[in-house]
Amino acid sequence: MIKKLRELAELVGGTVAGNGEVEISGIGSLEDAGPSELTFMASPKFLGKLKETRAAAVIVSKEIPQVDKPFLIAANPYLAFAKILGFFSDQPFQDRGVDPRAYVSPTAQIGREVNIYPFVWIGDRCSIGDRVVLYPGVYVGEDCSIGDGSVFYPNVSVYSRTKVGKRVVLHSGVVVGSDGFAYVKEGRTNVKIPQVGTVEMGDDVEIGANTTVDRATLGKTIIQRGTKIDNLVQVAHNVVIGEDSVIVAQVGIAGSTRIGSNVTLGGQVGVSDHAEIEDNVMVGAHSGVVGKLAGNAAYTGTPAMPHREFLRVINVFQKLPELNKRLLELEKRFAALEEKNPSKKEEDE
Amino acid sequence: MIKKLRELAELVGGTVAGNGEVEISGIGSLEDAGPSELTFMASPKFLGKLKETRAAAVIVSKEIPQVDKPFLIAANPYLAFAKILGFFSDQPFQDRGVDPRAYVSPTAQIGREVNIYPFVWIGDRCSIGDRVVLYPGVYVGEDCSIGDGSVFYPNVSVYSRTKVGKRVVLHSGVVVGSDGFAYVKEGRTNVKIPQVGTVEMGDDVEIGANTTVDRATLGKTIIQRGTKIDNLVQVAHNVVIGEDSVIVAQVGIAGSTRIGSNVTLGGQVGVSDHAEIEDNVMVGAHSGVVGKLAGNAAYTGTPAMPHREFLRVINVFQKLPELNKRLLELEKRFAALEEKNPSKKEEDE
Amino acid sequence: MIKKLRELAELVGGTVAGNGEVEISGIGSLEDAGPSELTFMASPKFLGKLKETRAAAVIVSKEIPQVDKPFLIAANPYLAFAKILGFFSDQPFQDRGVDPRAYVSPTAQIGREVNIYPFVWIGDRCSIGDRVVLYPGVYVGEDCSIGDGSVFYPNVSVYSRTKVGKRVVLHSGVVVGSDGFAYVKEGRTNVKIPQVGTVEMGDDVEIGANTTVDRATLGKTIIQRGTKIDNLVQVAHNVVIGEDSVIVAQVGIAGSTRIGSNVTLGGQVGVSDHAEIEDNVMVGAHSGVVGKLAGNAAYTGTPAMPHREFLRVINVFQKLPELNKRLLELEKRFAALEEKNPSKKEEDE
């Protein structure tokens, strides 16, 4: 596929500076783009690389006088890059139908133009939308519903009664609807609390490889529209995650915790049970969250504190040996001084 | 299924206050229970919600005069709830037999009333107990034995020579018996130490989705009776975990470590190799354990310390900038004072 | 298989002290080795156990006068143990061919003497080397190439266009080539950046159960020859890991980070995006790495600092309550002293 630069600019609502007629066959990084490809500069610090790129044209936020290339000028070059990359990489949908080596319950309803690969298992009374793709090894338990255009990559396991919106993407090894981890002690014995709730996901949710989402004890575990979850994340029973949130790899969210909308949790963050993180919060990687984090703010550390406060704390933390030395020194000097000037209190004694 | 309140009270060894003849059709949370359902109050702090519940009756630890409902009084309401929920949610066992689309080695022994789903693979000389359920995509390598009533959810992988007790539940994506991570350097090259040991699990063990349990180098990796492990946990080679312990999500236990009985490890805890955690220990979430933790105590932090001590440490940690400021202030004031009162030592110099 | 001790010594380039004619049938730990087996002592601290072993002979680094056994003397006893264990445990390769219950694209090229088990799926235009073993439930997407002698355990998922070297071992549940986690905000909406890059792995890479390796956004995610990765590790898009490195369980490596050769990352370490860890670095378990770590050194902590510095910091950290008390005490004593000796500044006020 070949497009003129000005056509791509229209596609992303940008403008052209220089020759808009140059023909573009793809998009690549500053280092790798070929002479008929478009590239992008996300930050001025890559100016050196930009000067050496072989690319035919560059997406930038404003013209760069030092560089003699046609420019596609966009308010957010990275966003324009994402959209143009999608334009060049989108594959036409292939309708393979239901492979006879898959198992599909006779009571399941299957939409139009689906791809159900070999070794897929679909349980009784499931509802599978149009253009759904289920790769080999996908398991969908009884009474599930999967919205139009959803894609489950190989070896995904979805337990019974899970409800999934449209265009939901589950990467390989994702498990949805496994039992919540809930026991009550009778003496030393762990008595299982049956997990009879479900999981629901809104439209446009994407979940990374080997992430696990447990079903609720009672009620629902919920992941709302547009939220994106990375690999190896744990979402426990009865958790609710709002819309458009971003959960980075290896985060663990314990039972009954509520995460707001447009929240970002950095990699390996742990959130305790029954915690609450309000809308528009960012939590730095590796942090541990307990209790409630008020909205529209950034937090870091264990326990998580406001990010600026954390920077001040960690700054002193790294100097603790020096701090201790200063304190020791002061104690010595003080003892020497006190010897000369016994305090009132000491005199009283 | 309908039961009278007094019948449910008998079932859990509780008593009734109020009308024991009221008919109960299920159990739900304070918010969600319907007018023919039972609910429960685990803590007095939910009294407000209790006053608004539509439930027919309530499990409590003692009568609540402010609320005009029949009560089921139990020493541990949460335990009674778990048992009654189990009573209402248990499904009759369905005997589907061995699906012809599964692969079962001719030398494997299969018990009675099993459910072996399509796309299951069972290796040579395996012994599969009665009423075992193996969901689609389950792999059981050669020479494994699986006790009566065990359930392996979809896409579980169990390597050869694993021994599993009765009523063991492995959730989707669990891997048991993968090679321990053990190499020895020859120059820079990592020479693999063959992992020829096995894994053994006692009765009533339950393991959460995508958790991994490595086989031993020599000997056995052991998880004893009644221990429950959450999702995405790593159990390394030659680890031994005692009975009735509880390992929360994303914990990592390194090689040859021994965990006692009735131990609780909070989410994301890391335990180093060759460590020892004695019986009845609790380790707080996100902690890092090195060496030995004596029994019957709670620990938190990295490195893990007694929990009360940790609270004192973390309290000062959060005030480090202030501490530093106080120290600076003291240094300044001290310098001023010293100027006026030179100490003996300084005089000597 | 029976070998004389002197034959085993030759095998590993060691020497014999005592009777080299003793016949050895296997190898075991100090506790478990039987009377016709060889054992090894990795450290002098196990001398007590050595005195009680029933083993026929012992691998040691030098003769031990207190013990009356034949010795196999090797510069690195643990390495000799690994090699002899491999010698006794290696199984002859069984050539089972391609099972008819597997799906193999007609355009895939399959090498000689392979084992393709039931329920394996191999996509169009794949190239599968000689003696490759693909266990049940393995998925290999379109246009992949897998080098000779590689083994993929059950339920491994390899997305399209992945290239894997020779003798690569992927344990169960490993996912390679899933989409990198990359979105750009358009308002609150997360717009996906298409992940059109690939993953490449060198020869002799081994990857533990349920580990995930994401494909690059553009270009390649690379794991070089001889690197070993443990279970439940996250390797994000565009990461490059050098040769012979060792990545312990539950490590998370964020996007575009570069890890050198012969690096060791301890369990649960997190490495931020665009970080760089140079050759021969060791990072202690549970650490958080940001920015750049210079080569040939050990680091620990969050943020990671030189290991010796970390030990000094953590030593004071554990005494923070005491430190605070000392500071308080000093403040009190100082106030008392100041009362007697007002400083100049205070006099001016």
Descriptive notes:
The structure is a homotrimer of 349-residue chains. Chain A is an alpha/beta fold and 349 residues long. Chain A has three domains: 3-89, 3-Layer(aba) Sandwich (Udp-n-acetylmuramoylalanyl-d-glutamate--2,6- Diaminopimelate Ligase, Chain: A, domain 1), CATH 3.40.1390.10; 97-308, Hexapeptide repeat proteins (UDP N-Acetylglucosamine Acyltransferase, domain 1, 3 Solenoid), CATH 2.160.10.10; 319-348. Chain A is 18% helix and 29% strand. In chain A, the strands form six sheets. A twelve-stranded mixed beta sheet of chain A has the order 8-11-14-17-20-25-28-31-34-37-40-41, covered by helices on one side. In chain A, strand 5 (37-40), helix 2 and strand 6 (57-60) form a beta-alpha-beta unit. The longest helix of chain A is centred in the last third of the chain and has 21 residues, at 320-340. Chains in contact: A-B, A-C, B-C. At the A-C interface, helix 3, helix 4, helix 5 and helix 6 of A face strand 22, strand 23, helix 4 and helix 5 of C.
